[in-house]
Fold these 3 entries.
Entry 1:
Amino acid sequence: MTHRPASTDVEIHPLIAGRWSPRAYADRPVAHAQVLAMLEAARWAPSAFNAQPWRFVVFEKTVDATAFERAFGTLISFNRSWNVHAQVLIAVLADTLTSKGAVNPGACYDTGAAAMALLLQAHAQGLAAHAMSGLDADAFRAAFAIPARYEVQSMISVAHHGDAQTLPAALAEREHAPRARLPMERIAHFGAWPESDR
């Protein structure tokens, strides 16, 4: 299932409503040009003081299978189980220091914005992309000699959409389950913080 638009309370742009995190992947290559377009979208994300703290380490299965497998090995076992047909892995890192060596308090926030731009571009290209926090960040850091100033945020897997029936039954069911989010009143407060959440 490739088309699962969110049932929103207020109309939003179809690109945003349509983006979701599938697990059913097809075992066929993703074009390098599509990978570059995703990274270009991320490059133009907003950031405080235009610091651009995001960094990406990209692994394309068809380009360097050995590096891809090393990165794949840092995923937790659950994520390895459904990513067998992933074609691209993109590690998302945040540079926690400014150009002057001070701590950048907005680094992770800004990096998240860049990652979202990347995910939206993947969706716009008809690709399946799924961001995962389930990886061994220390193992990834050691495997690829990542300097201490860069915080490993997540791993994004990318592929063409596949058949959900190839997934284990529980995951196949989740591919078709209704999408849900917290209600607006739980996430947005107008004018003041509600006493009920104090």
Entry 2:
Amino acid sequence: MTQPNGADDGGFRAQLAAAVARLTQAGVADAPRDARLLMAHALDLPVTRLGIDAPARLTPAQQARLAELIARRASRQPISQIIGRRAFWKHDFHVTPDTLDPRPETETLVQAALRLDWSSVLDLGTGTGAILISLLAERPQAGGLGTDISDAALAVARGNAARLGVKADFTRADWFDGVTGRFDLIVSNPPYIALSEMAALSPEVREFEPHGALTDFGDGLSAYRRIAAGAARHLTPNGAVLVEIGWQQGQAVARLFAEAGASVRVLPDLDGRDRVIEAHFGPDPVKTA
């Protein structure tokens, strides 16, 4: 990789410094962190071993690999797509440009689900399968179905389940269209960004993640309308729904589920922002695990 002053040095420290400079110039928010992650990936090392096991000087092949990785990140491609994985809950999940990048705030939904008593779960719009697989890994005796309208996303989810040793079923469906049976729990992280908000997203999201997983190309509430309207027909008695929401959507989405006959709570994420709607259908008190 060419250094900022034009000198070409294959030394580890010089290459890392050049990577940080390139990413900083490209506007990457945490350039030092991302440069270290990509350096570790280029050297096939855990990032925690980078300062211990990295060679003093990179081979030409390693330099070329690092340069390609840094160029992709400088174009603002998400680092998870570049290295092919993203940590979520207790596992690393394979991600591709066909799937939404699992985000830490979605763990709020997983935590909420694990407080409930359920033995079957339906994950609508499963993407990487991160929510469903995380839940079933915690309750291996439970059964689960993940649906998505994207065949490419379903392939990623199936691969993640197989690699992590979690038994789950996956099928193509458009929300409830194509789904049969009833479940104790329905979960979803649907596209909730309004079309008018898309332009303000970071390049990592706007240019590289699948738009169909981000927005409904309308007001951001279309998926919730369909889930709220159809949930009761696909839940067992006293079943529950957990959906992730945008931080400004709490009241609007809660109203949709209340109008569908559910008792509703709005749950905050670790930053105190509205993040999950918990909706219970049925006359009996909610059972918790």
Entry 3:
Amino acid sequence: MFFAGLFAMYFTTRAALPELWAEQTAKLNLTFAAINTTVLVLSSVTCQMGVWAAERFQPRRAGSLLQVSRWGMQEWMTLTFLMGAAFIGGQVFEYAELVGHGVALDSDPYGSVFYLATGFHGLHVVGGLIAFLMLLGRSFAARRFGHHEATTAIVVSYYWHFVDVVWIALFGAIYLIR
């Protein structure tokens, strides 16, 4: 519901100020945002690979680090964490670029809506990163990897997939609908 409110705010402001919207969206770097989005979407794939390993009760790899097909939950979830952190780093870079082009939180309604929508999504990604750290810590500390740890991995993945789906919708609304 919260993100539905952000979308409503976004489209209402866009309809009220079409000239401002055209001017400010021209400053967005679609190529960079598409690459950053791809990283986040692919992190859902690695997260699901980690879930499948957890469901097999395989907490860690069963071979060399280079044998990706034998990775366990810890390796997949660590990769997912790194990809999520890279996405956040990309958002920070994009924010710095946009501020340099005069698009700031307090510059105009477009800046306010852009940063509120993407910023709150970013906070949710950070929440997911914290959940991954807790999941990994719990799995390393567990004497025996069982149903409890596997269920935790599944629940964290539900949240992560939700965050990814929300970003796909935000990306479409912000970057593709000009």
